[in-house]
Here is the input.
Amino acid sequence: MSNWRHKPQSEKELLQLMAPVKAVVKWVKARRGFVIGVGILKGGTGKSTSVLYLALYFSVALGLKVAVVDTDDNSQSIARWVATHKALGNKVPFELFVHPTKGAGAISLKKRLKPLKSDFDVVIVDLGGGDKETFIDLCQEGRLLLMPSAPSGWETDRIQATLQTAARAAVLNAEGLDVYNFFVKCDFNSTLPEEEREAMAVDLSEEDEDFVPPPFLHPYFDISKAPHHIRSWNVMPKRGDLEEWGLLVRHAMKGIIEEDEAA
Here is the structure.
């Protein structure tokens, strides 16, 4: 279901855009505690669906030990998804940790992540749409930040502010933070993703000195508007439903793995 408009010309060209599966598994297991943040400083952009499918890909397709941290006090979609599927008798292949950002029991995300990084291969953080302190903690502690949105100005209007916040916070990240935008809910019969990419890439540095060019993944790895994404609230996604998410994360991780190997 990947974007046929931008399909690589050959299998060799496609493989050159991604880290091999074996390399991903080897790198994660050797490193352990690979922290991925998913979200934008705005709600309703497809982050929880993205978190779910990424968690399923790492745990089901790659056989890694995965923790998901739900920081979204407003909806806690992942926590409710887990409760729903446990009630249906479905096995949830990752471990969930609810992370309240307010109230007496709240702790910083940094403190939450510390034990998880030693206990799990991959830790995926579902970032709340408006909690800036938690977002900043992720940018300082994580290795990869993925920013999903539909190809619409209604969803992308907070991306520039999010990128600027991430850039400032990542200065204190000892390992470095890779940040990428990608589109979800794509109908590949339309040109909306191309149009929105062009609109977001307009250089606004004269009006905003902190302007950050959106770091998009290759458009082939945009995520489709597949029916199984909508059905996944009640129906556990199948192994085949995870394929496009696997391609996306292998593409996003290629530079990280190569950089670490070269160091």
Notes: The first helix runs from residue 11 to 16.
